[in-house]
Design goal:
By secondary structure, the chain is α/β, with parallel strands linked by helices. 40% of the residues lie in helices and 22% in strands. Strand 5, helix 6 and strand 6 (165-173) form a beta-alpha-beta unit. Helix 6 packs parallel to helix 7 (179-192).
């Protein structure tokens, strides 16, 4: 797992915090980690982007890299077109990730939004990058109502492209989960056809970095370097 592509079922599902948790656990185990954000949208040149947030939470030993930055909070292809700046292409992302792999034990490629959000006018996506790299994908999903549909659609698209879905992480597990969220713990791995590999608690991104790093291992399964027990979590949370 030298390169891991991280995508979400949509926007605001906890993808960056989930990426930071994976980075924190790997760094704590002594692995050199780089996070690559192919296209950062919605931030000015002087603002912190998602890759910077991963470093803030996971630690300064993690290296942050961006390929492009666009000021408007839109899909990368749209943001690039409106800004007059050059878009990124899947081939460029794959090349950058492969280059980072030569100097790091783990490279996390964090997409923007969902799997099929377009990088360029030709329709290139993060799914194309994952296929070019032959890298597995980690899917960050929301906990509540509606997540089963978007999770299954993403899983089916990956299967069509013959890209391996490593598993699913719930990006923000509520402090007081409702009925749908609790049922989804059992249903998410079924619709994904891949294991549930963690649940990041709601508000984790607001923790002090030291608290975040101390807790990250308990939010992720052993496949991601943590100690989170899917069976114990399901027994506690499901109905």
């Amino acid at each position: 797992m030298a390169i891991l592509v991280v995508t979400g079922t949509g926007t605001e599902v906890g993808k960056t915090v989930g990426t930071a948790a994976v980075a924190a656990v790997a760094a704590a185990a002594g692995r050199s980690v780089a996070v690559l954000k192919p296209a950062q949208t919605g931030v000015r040149p002087d603002e912190r982007g998602d890759a910077d947030e991963v470093v803030r939470l996971a630690g300064d030993s993690v290296a942050a890299h961006e390929l492009a930055r666009y000021p408007e909070p839109l899909a990368p292809a749209t943001a690039a077109r409106r800004s007059g700046l050059a878009p990124v292409h899947p081939e460029e992302v794959a090349e950058a990730a492969a280059k980072l792999e030569t100097d790091h034990d783990l490279v996390l490629v964090e997409g923007a939004g969902g799997l099929l959000v377009r990088f360029d006018e030709a329709g290139g996506t993060l799914a194309d990058t994952a296929r070019l790299l032959g890298a597995p994908v980690l899917l960050v999903a929301s906990a509540g109502l509606g997540t089963l549909n978007t999770t299954e659609l993403t899983a089916r698209e990956l299967a069509t492209r013959e890209v391996r879905l490593m598993g699913v992480v719930i990006g923000s597990w509520p402090k007081a989960p409702d009925l749908a969220s609790r049922c989804n713990v059992a249903d998410l791995p079924v619709v994904a056809g891949a294991p549930l590999l963690g649940a990041v608690p709601e508000g984790a991104g607001a923790l002090y970095p030291a608290e975040f790093r101390a807790g990250a291992g308990g939010w992720l399964a052993p496949a991601l370097g943590g100690t989170w027990d899917a069976a114990a979590f399901a027994a506690r949370e499901t109905v």
